[in-house]
């Protein structure tokens, strides 16, 4: 296990390095640089020249990348061109808020999806299974912006039960203090995720129901509840755990549409707006964070699967 | 001109008011209801607008209009122009000085300051204005508004007459309208006694009077200005002379201004506080408007059809027209089409193919207004020539087509090609080879349904006169990157037409001269348009004291079509709570919250 972890961490460092190189090269291959995007159409040639000098765009690509890498090794992600703050502080502000939103959405989705998947599998090919499958597919196929809009119209305008925007506070405690305002964004994020996880859970339970150990347990007189929740559940969770690991970058990269509709500035919007304005330091910083989350997520998925499933444990020794 | 020129601008404004010129763009009823003293108002900022600068010398990247709007409530500029009088004119109450007096043929400006006080209790003096000049002179490369030859280069000498009076000796004669409106409006007195320091906790001195000292002071002040989270607590920014002070300034973009109890001018705020609220998108903002969560918000263009339901929720819905023009520049140096664009008859044919009225009414839901020339058409101003007002090139596809066919073009398969090469009266024109086909490409700003539809309408219209148009939609900054001034031999010269005007292509300062966009040396003359007659008219409009100079320029440029004139979209469609009064929607996109009040 230790050798496996060391090897994977080494691979992760190499992957992240290549990600920074590729993203840096892609960004800097855009002709003209970000000066016009940042300074707008009224920028004078002098202002553009000064901007390029100040941010090192008058140097060679290799020098620029080397400067970026040197700063990175000193823990400096650079300064945003447009937001007048360091990228580290921006990401530091946005990530906790994003994790609250995506984390709660995922948690709600799991709490609904896992029992729902089991329930459907046990009633497979029944009317209830078909009805829930239809609903789940509708939820999965509905664009998030449309879903969010419907939630806003129904719960904030028609019935006025909930506020139309997410909590407008900067602190995490403030977010939970205004928990009513979290309901709609969390719900909008959870609905599509429920669909994905419940389908995985349903098919995993179906696979396990046909296994010999289930028949053995039943033959020994174990109750159906015990068979399902003790024997089948643990083995059926393997694909869900794997999926959760690979889902980690999604948690960190934010939920652009939900953030946009519910006035909740998180990582998704930070990245999107930076792309619109060519704010390179933010783009590079965000990509770096998401790349880190991706490699850590896939590593976590493997380790957790190994802990749950002895067959996987044997394979990675 | 030997006699002093006084109050040119004020005089013009009075004349216009007497003539009944009005923007037709007032906000809420200026004088309605019983004014309630105090109260708080929430103002919705444009999507993703994040205020990030309060220091009155803006560095590149910190020049957004909302920064200016917030800053000039705290630190009063020397002069402010706005639309509160019904047209764009000097607003004496919102500035620090009395109207300037020009003498010496427009080469000397005499300025007297009003009786105003900093929060420290010290008077605002000529020294505070000199301090601004010294900092800008020594650090002009870092000043975002700097244009070579303009301020501070055009001020040869700053001459202090007394604590409340100073004179500027200019390097040459300037048009007083232009100099006051487009140069002196940048000047903001700053508290020398508090800010003339080189480090935190340092003792204030006269450091700004040496170049090296001014650089150190500027470096320190811009460093402090970079710390957004300290704006509400840093004593530097407490030294206000305006009607408001900073109460809250968050890194996520929410700003709250509180009434300044130490303000001694004539423009005291009615409200206790104004909160500038950031929004992630116009949809998010609309949701909050629908639930009554902001006092002064806006509607996305696509939601304008829902005005009735917004009005039923307690708002007035009013367009806020900007002091701007919208246009599509031609790249006259494009190797493939430059020679075609240089033919006036081609440009006339293109202009006559743009159905501006229909585009404004249908595609922009009446939230854009046709524009026929280089001067903003709303509100009506003394700068607008009759030529522009009467539209010399009305929409007429038959005439447009005839212009092409009478100049040697034949149309086959929907695209015109040059059959008569040469520069005669019935030939295609100089530099156009036989067989050249009229096929243009436009780089157009993406992200707006109205713009997308408008481009398709233009494409359809042009196809009817034999011009093929390919539309390449890109994000705004990509369009701006690709729309560079260039020489025909450069690879960057491949662009032909460009549209970046979803929110208006060019917002003018108060005096709408065209030196930056239409003079041959203009830094934003993107299409490299060259016409010595235009250069001469622009020079006159900025340097001569002839009040008709700008109208002459306007009339000529309207007809010579350096660009395709397009409908100008409103700055925004506002939703203003019915009990919020005193709001005038300023065409220069600034706000005057000190004059807002809540009606009982």
TrEMBL record, chain A:
Q: Keyword check for DNA damage, yes or no.
A: no
The lineage is: Bacteria, Bacillati, Actinomycetota, Actinomycetes, Streptosporangiales
Q: Give the source species.
A: Actinoallomurus bryophytorum
Transmembrane residue ranges: 12-30, 99-118, 130-155, 175-197, 240-262, 282-308
What is the name listed in the Swiss-Prot or TrEMBL entry for this protein?
Peptide/nickel transport system permease protein
Q: Which Pfam families match?
A: BPD_transp_1, BPD_transp_1_N
Tell me where in or outside the cell this protein is found: Cell membrane
The membrane topology noted for this protein in its Swiss-Prot or TrEMBL record is: Multi-pass membrane protein
Q: What CDD domains does UniProt report for this protein, alphabetically?
A: TM_PBP2
Give the similarity note. Answer: Belongs to the binding-protein-dependent transport system permease family.
**Has keyword Nucleotide-binding?**
no
Alphabetically sorted, this entry's keywords are: Cell membrane, Membrane, Transmembrane, Transmembrane helix, Transport
One Gene Ontology cellular component annotation held by this UniProt entry: plasma membrane
Please provide, alphabetically and separated by semicolons, the GO molecular function terms listed in this UniProt record: dipeptide transmembrane transporter activity
Q: What is its main location?
A: membrane
Which residue ranges does the record assign to the ABC transmembrane type-1 domain?
95-301
Domain of life of the organism encoding this protein: Bacteria
UniProtKB/TrEMBL annotation, chain B:
What Gene3D superfamilies does the record tag this protein with?
Dipeptide-binding Protein, Domain 3, Periplasmic binding protein-like II
Keywords carried by this UniProt record = Signal, Transport
Where is the protein found, in the record's own terms? Answer: Cell envelope
Q: Which BP terms in the Gene Ontology apply to this protein?
A: peptide transport
Q: What is its main location?
A: other
Solute-binding protein family domain spans which residues?
Answer: 95-524
Q: Where in the sequence is the signal peptide annotated?
A: 1-18
Q: Which PROSITE patterns match?
A: PROKAR_LIPOPROTEIN
Q: Which InterPro entries match?
A: Peptide/Ni-bd (IPR030678), SBP_5 (IPR039424), SBP_5_dom (IPR000914)
Q: Which family does it belong to?
A: Belongs to the bacterial solute-binding protein 5 family.
User: What is this protein's record name?
Assistant: Peptide/nickel transport system substrate-binding protein
């Amino acid at each position: 296990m230790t050798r496996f972890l060391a090897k994977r961490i080494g691979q992760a460092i190499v992957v992240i390095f290549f990600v920074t190189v590729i993203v840096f090269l892609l960004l800097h291959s855009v002709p003209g640089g970000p000066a016009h995007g940042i300074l707008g159409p009224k920028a004078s040639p002098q202002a553009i020249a000064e901007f390029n000098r100040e941010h090192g765009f008058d140097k060679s690509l290799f020098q620029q990348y080397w400067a970026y890498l040197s700063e990175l090794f000193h823990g400096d992600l650079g300064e945003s061109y447009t937001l007048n703050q360091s990228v580290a502080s921006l990401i530091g502000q946005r990530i906790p808020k994003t994790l609250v939103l995506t984390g709660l959405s995922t948690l709600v989705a799991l709490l609904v999806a896992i029992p729902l998947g089991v329930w459907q599998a046990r009633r497979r090919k029944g009317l209830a299974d078909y009805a829930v499958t239809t609903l789940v597919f509708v939820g999965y196929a509905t664009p998030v912006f449309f879903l969010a809009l419907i939630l806003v119209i129904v719960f904030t305008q028609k019935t006025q039960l909930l506020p139309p925007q997410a909590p407008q506070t900067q602190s995490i405690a403030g977010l939970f203090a205004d928990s009513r305002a979290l309901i709609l964004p969390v719900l909008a994020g959870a609905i599509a995720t429920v669909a994905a996880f419940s389908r995985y859970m349903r098919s995993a339970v179906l696979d396990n129901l046909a296994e010999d150990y289930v028949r053995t347990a039943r033959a020994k007189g174990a109750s159906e509840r015990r068979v399902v929740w003790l024997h089948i559940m643990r083995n059926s969770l393997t694909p869900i755990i794997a999926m959760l690991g690979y889902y980690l970058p999604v948690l960190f990269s934010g939920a652009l549409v939900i953030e946009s509709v519910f006035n909740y500035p998180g990582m998704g919007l930070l990245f999107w707006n930076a792309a619109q304005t060519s704010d390179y330091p933010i783009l590079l910083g965000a990509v770096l964070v998401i790349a880190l989350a991706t490699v850590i997520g896939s590593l976590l998925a493997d380790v957790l699967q190994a802990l749950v499933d002895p067959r996987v444990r044997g394979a990675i020794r | 001109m030997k006699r002093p020129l006084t109050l040119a601008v004020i005089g013009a404004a009075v004349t216009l008011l007497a003539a009944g010129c009005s923007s037709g763009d007032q906000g809420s009823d200026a004088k309605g209801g019983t004014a309630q003293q105090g109260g708080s108002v929430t103002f919705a900022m444009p999507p993703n607008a994040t205020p990030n600068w309060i220091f009155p010398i803006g560095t590149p990247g910190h020049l957004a209009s909302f920064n200016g709007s917030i800053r000039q409530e705290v630190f009063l500029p020397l002069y402010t122009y706005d639309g509160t009088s019904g047209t764009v004119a000097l607003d004496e109450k919102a500035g620090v000085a009395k109207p300037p007096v020009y003498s010496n043929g427009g080469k000397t400006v005499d300025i007297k300051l009003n009786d105003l006080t900093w929060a420290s209790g010290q008077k605002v003096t000529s020294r505070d204005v000199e301090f601004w000049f010294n900092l800008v002179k020594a650090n002009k490369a870092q000043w975002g508004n700097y244009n070579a030859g303009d301020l501070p280069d055009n001020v040869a000498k700053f001459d202090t007459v007394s604590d409340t009076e100073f004179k500027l000796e200019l390097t040459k004669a300037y048009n007083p309208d232009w100099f006051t409106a487009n140069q002196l409006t940048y000047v903001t007195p700053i508290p020398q006694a508090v800010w003339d320091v080189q480090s935190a906790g340092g003792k204030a001195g006269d450091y700004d009077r040496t170049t090296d000292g001014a650089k150190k002071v500027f470096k320190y002040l811009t460093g402090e200005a970079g710390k957004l989270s300290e704006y509400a607590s840093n004593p530097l920014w407490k030294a206000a002379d305006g009607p408001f002070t900073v109460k809250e300034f968050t890194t996520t973009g929410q700003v709250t201004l509180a009434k300044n109890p130490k303000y001694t001018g004539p423009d005291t705020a009615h409200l206790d506080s104004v909160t500038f609220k950031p929004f992630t998108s116009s949809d998010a903002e609309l949701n909050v408007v629908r639930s009554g969560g902001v006092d002064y918000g806006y509607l996305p263009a696509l939601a304008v059809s829902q005005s009735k339901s917004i009005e039923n929720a307690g708002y007035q819905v009013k367009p806020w027209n900007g002091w701007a023009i919208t246009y599509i520049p031609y790249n006259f140096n494009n190797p493939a089409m430059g020679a075609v664009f240089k033919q006036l008859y081609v440009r006339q044919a293109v202009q006559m193919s743009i159905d501006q009225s229909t585009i404004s009414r249908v595609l922009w839901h009446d939230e854009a207004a046709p524009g026929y020339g280089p001067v903003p058409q709303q509100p009506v101003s003394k700068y607008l020539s009759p030529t522009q007002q009467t539209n010399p090139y009305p929409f007429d596809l038959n005439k447009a087509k005839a212009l092409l066919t009478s100049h040697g073009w034949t149309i086959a398969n929907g695209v015109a090609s040059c059959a008569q090469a040469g520069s005669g009266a019935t030939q295609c024109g100089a530099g156009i080879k036989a067989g050249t086909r009229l096929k243009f490409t436009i780089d157009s700003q993406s992200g707006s349904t109205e713009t997308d539809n408008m481009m398709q309408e233009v494409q359809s219209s042009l196809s009817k006169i034999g011009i093929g148009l390919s539309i390449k939609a890109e994000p705004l900054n990509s369009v701006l990157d690709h729309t560079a001034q260039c020489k025909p031999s450069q690879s960057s010269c491949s662009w032909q037409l460009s549209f970046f005007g979803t929110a208006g292509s060019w917002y003018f300062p108060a005096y709408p001269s065209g030196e930056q966009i239409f003079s041959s040396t203009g830094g934003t003359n993107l299409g490299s348009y060259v016409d010595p007659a235009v250069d001469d008219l622009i020079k006159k409009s900025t340097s001569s004291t002839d009040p008709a100079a700008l109208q002459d320029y306007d009339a000529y440029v309207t007809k010579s079509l350096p660009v395709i004139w397009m409908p100008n979209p409103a700055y925004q469609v506002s939703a203003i709570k019915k009990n919020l009064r005193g709001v005038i929607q300023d065409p220069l996109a600034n706000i005057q919250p000190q004059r807002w009040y809540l009606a009982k």
